[in-house]
Specification:
The structure is a homodimer of 454-residue chains. Helix content of chain A is 39%, strand content 21%. In chain A, strand 1, helix 1 and strand 2 form a beta-alpha-beta unit. Chain A is globular and about 70 Å long.
Chain lengths: 454, 454
């Protein structure tokens, strides 16, 4: 058992709340600051993408002893439902039988986790804005505004769980030799809603992640417990078909009529919500170091914000807490070693999932409708079904395992090289089902594996 | 002639001062803010690397009508003097006859440029700290500290010339969709001095840029007008031979004795200065956009800080001002178009010189002593001497021309590919001087040129 510490967590989002539960179970004093109001008391913002909890997330929740409560809030999705223009909907299974991702509303989950953290004894200070941190002494300064009177708090440790635009990281960034990057993609997103049927049932299959891929843009929909779907439209900010080009209700209506005729009429208050809901940007943030001696460390988006196209943002943040927890078990009261090993182990994995998420942005919007890409997937699928121990698809490694993201990236790159060779085979589009394709793969994976893979 | 504007420049460094002169000559009201004291009234900081003015710098100074004054402060260096262990010093000419880079002390140059800007009518407000800028209204806020009472200034335009850790950019960075990165290299530097001989003459050849390459680290020396040399030691922060490993005067003394025996005794107060002078970090900073409508724009290091290994930091900053000037001539009072075209034209060039400078960091420290690298240079040199119109070396494109940095990078990459092929020729180290090598190069450059190169 560790010596009791007086610990501050800045940020009451998903990762901050989970960390609060962990640390309370270790017996520490925990105060959670958030500049925003308590999400349990306000309507959720209308700028969220539904979450997809997968293996890493569940593992961290189980370690905190709260998996069961959270399972009740989640709907399993075992496949993609592809809505391609002028074709019937078709389905792509995510993994093996019993493997699924779990759709959860961010608002619902966050409220529940704050409840659980409070039950565990964490103190929440909402609408209290942290403006500065003294990194050497772990003092926090809060107040109405940057220029108002500040209140001073003394802690033993401070965790920055305050998201992509973290104030704690912002302070660390002014140190010399702090590496940092923020890179926005040129695509924004907007939340829309498909309400439940009158009887509370879902209007679309509720065990599917629905995608309407349209090349440069796409619509997705994920089910909620109440029968509704949270939809997200991903669309370039500027250009021929873009948020900028949709300025009037008529233009928005025409856009949906043209590109999403099968679902347009199911979206509630389409024209109103399109202009009422904000258009949000997406950013990849990388930085290093994440820690300052035994005083400060960053967790979740504040350390590694990623674009949402692999559904791993929350999962990666929760896995940070799993890793911290394992280092606490290893090092006990030596917080400097805990933080040091945590950041060194997590950093390459955070970079890997950032890269994978960015690549999936390209893949989901453009390639999911590309015949050659679909053929690849079909060949891979057949092979992995026959030789599950020889070929775990990249998506499964990321989503249904807790092996490191960096290993997944490395093996994924190697698998892509193998498939590049396979796709060069003559008449592959006709003969993809023939035994020589399978033999070719077996031969190729025999020949060369990336380093450090057994 | 433009309509008179009331313009603020934040930062009285080299680029800020040059901009002040330009804008005063256009008739604008110019106020320059600097949080530090007037450099003319204080000793310079002991953390500078001497500057190497080259073609782009001179061009911008000429356009501002101050080239002649600055020439008097500069010493031409037409070659590198290589001090390799256990070999006599040897020389590498930089370019053709008459081509040279010019060594100038940063302090001497900055003082002179502030004098010239004041003579031109710019108002300098030293020790006045800018804490905030309202980007829409071009208001500046200054004060003793971030939390003190602030003074408010209303301007028409604000230029951020406040260096790598720019406060103005810092404010822009909080905008959504602002891309930003800062990346520190693991090598630091420290300034040292070789004083003049008793008669005021230089202790080393004063028309050379002196380099002591030692693989992972190196020492350089550049002459000053007063007979002294400003030396810079580049050394990893951590590792076997590093700043971290040199903790005592004895260790520092042993280090110089072992690696720089030929020059050690000429460095004044070596042991004292080594510990008195700060160890400085080097960073590459990239961001975009640089401008905010017709209100704000960034120039110099605040927009594109680079590592110093191509000697182009100041030159690139001065070239920003040249480009701004050309856009002012083109667009007159349309400041939004001036800023827009300025940033779009400069950004790829800033990225290119960042890349070239980073590569030279590798090249200068490790490759300048590598026989195969030197052989390449020798072959290139011979070829370019015979066919000067067919092969302008990369260094000359960057240093002795004002063609764009991005073109230089592209052609440089293509030349490297050509030389890679040449170096694969059998017995190249013996036969490098033979006609077939020349024929091979002619054949290769005939075959393929990068796009957009005539």
């Amino acid at each position: 058992m560790q010596k009791k510490k007086n610990i501050a967590i800045v940020g009451s989002g998903l990762v901050g709340s989970l960390l609060a539960i962990y640390l309370r179970k270790q017996g520490h004093g925990v105060t959670v600051f958030d500049r925003r109001p308590d999400v349990r008391t306000v309507e959720f913002s209308g700028r969220s993408i539904n979450l997809a909890m997968s293996n890493r997330g569940w593992k961290a929740l189980a370690e905190a002893g709260i998996e069961k409560e959270i399972r009740q809030l989640a709907l399993p999705l075992d496949k993609r439902a592809m809505h391609v223009v002028d074709k019937p909907v078709y389905f792509q299974k995510y993994g093996n039988d019993g493997e699924a991702i779990y759709s959860i509303s961010r608002g619902v989950l966050n409220r529940k986790m704050i409840d659980l953290a409070e039950e565990a004894g964490a103190v929440f200070r909402f609408e209290e804005k942290v403006w500065d941190v003294d990194m050497r002494s772990a003092q926090l300064f809060t107040g109405e505004s940057e220029k108002s009177e500040w209140k001073e708090y003394q802690f033993d440790l401070v965790f920055g769980a305050d998201g992509a635009f973290s104030r704690i990281r912002h302070k660390m960034q002014r140190q010399s030799r702090f590496n940092y990057s923020q890179h926005f993609i040129d695509v924004g997103y907007k939340e829309l809603t498909i309400p439940a049927n009158a009887d509370g049932s879902h209007k679309l299959d509720n065990a599917s992640f629905h995608i309407w891929p349209r090349g440069e843009f796409m619509l997705i929909a994920m089910p909620n417990l109440d029968g509704s779907f949270t939809c997200t439209l991903f669309l370039p900010f500027e250009g021929k078909v873009s948020f900028e080009s949709l300025q009037t209700e008529e233009q928005a209506d025409d856009f949906f009529e043209r590109y999403f005729p099968d679902i347009k009429d199911e979206i509630s208050n389409l024209k109103r919500d399109f202009f009422k809901n904000p258009t949000s940007a997406m950013v990849t943030i990388k930085c290093f170091p994440w820690s300052y001696y035994d005083k400060i460390t960053l967790v979740g988006d504040s350390a590694h914000a990623i674009v949402p196209f692999y559904g791993q943002g929350m999962n990666a943040g929760f896995e940070d807490i799993s890793v911290l927890y394992s280092k606490i078990e290893k090092y006990g009261d030596d917080w400097e070693s805990i933080f040091e090993e945590y950041q060194n182990e997590r950093k390459p994995n955070a970079d890997a999932i950032a890269e994978l998420s960015y690549r999936n942005f390209i893949e989901m919007s453009s390639k999911t409708a590309d015949p050659s890409f679909l053929l690849r997937k079909k060949i891979e699928k057949k092979f992995t079904n026959k030789y599950p121990e020889k070929w775990i698809p990249l998506y499964s490694r990321v989503t249904f395992s807790d092996k490191s993201y960096s290993e997944a990236l490395k093996i994924g790159d190697w698998q892509r090289q193998v498939m590049d060779e396979v796709m060069k085979m003559p008449n592959i589009s006709e003969d993809w089902d023939q035994p020589e394709v399978e033999e070719k793969i077996l031969e190729l994976i025999q020949k060369k594996k990336p380093e450090s893979i057994s």
